[in-house]
Amino acid sequence: KKLDCKQLVAYYQKMIASPFDIYIVGDIQYEPMIRLIKQFFVKKTVNKKNYIPALPLSTSIVSPKIVHKNILQTRLAILYTTQKVFSDKESYALRILNDILGGGMQSKLFLEVREKKGLCYSISSTYNSSYGYLLIHTGIQAKNVKQVLQEVQKQLDAIKEGKFTQKEVQRSVDSFCRGIQSYKDDCFAYIDLHVRYASFHQPFDLEDILVQYQQVTKKQIMEVAQNIQYKTHAVLTKKGE
Predict the structure, then answer these.
(1) Number of domains comprising the chain
(2) Are 86 and 129 spatial neighbours (Cβ–Cβ below 8 Å)?
(3) Contact 127/228 with Cβ under 8 angstroms?
(4) How far is CA 3 from the centre of its chain?
(5) Residue 55 placed within a domain
(6) In whole angstroms, what separates CA 80 from the centre of its chain?
């Protein structure tokens, strides 16, 4: 609401003067395209930006936080550190681990905490490879906060102990591989993935990425799980609870 036309124009001028990358994907004639790029763009700016490498989040524990707002459903977020970021080969195993833990309706968190225990309305997990953290987010009743914290830790401990099947591993691997294959048919998604790899100075090859996922083993998942540590949690709940 505070934005006005003058601010938007100023931002636009700043944006077009910033360094940029050009991606061209498809059946093109390479040499004519290079000539056009040099003619219209190369004199304007050259992207010399130094990308900051991904750094894992500190493992130091932070005091839990409770925020009160006028809401109907309590939200609980639990943060864990993994010590593995995008540039680490182990990040592939962590993505599979995250999918098994809380990646969907077949995940351990969904089946055990929501379906079997009935402790939450929704629950899922996300692995952020930029900062190497695992985030569990769930919608619950305020009275269930402590029990949900315990059950989430219980499911994570189960993975650390190898209490998951090869079938679960393969299902997650197949899901990721289908997702990677779909990039071949979506130019914008392909470019977006390439930019992500380039940002972390990683070689980009879809076939190699597929191989990395296909080579993830149950043992590797258990190994990366050992480094996952609780950092903090936050509760968003209505006033008076």
Answers:
(1) 2
(2) yes
(3) no
(4) 30
(5) no
(6) 13
Per-residue b/e over 90-128, b at no fewer than 16 CB within 10 Å?
A: bbbbbbbbbbbbbbeeebbbbebbbeeeebbeebbbebb
Domain-embedded: residue 46: no
The reply to whether 36 and 74 lie within a common domain is no
Is residue 33 domain-shared with residue 77, that is, in the same domain? no
Digit-coded pLDDT (tens) for 58-112: 999 999 999 999 998 999 999 999 999 998 999 999 999 999 999 999 999 999 9
Burial environment of residue 175 by CB neighbours within 10 A (0 to 12, 13 to 18, 19 or more)? middle
C-alpha separations of 120 from 22, 141, 144, 152 in Å: 46, 7, 8, 11
Within-domain flag for 58: no
Domain extent at residue 140: 65-237
Instruction: Give residue-wise pLDDT tens across range 161-180.
Output: 999 999 999 999 999 999 99
In a domain, 164, yes or no: yes
C-alpha 70/C-alpha 59 separation (Å) is 32
Check if the beta carbon of residue 192 is closer than 8 Å to that of residue 198: no
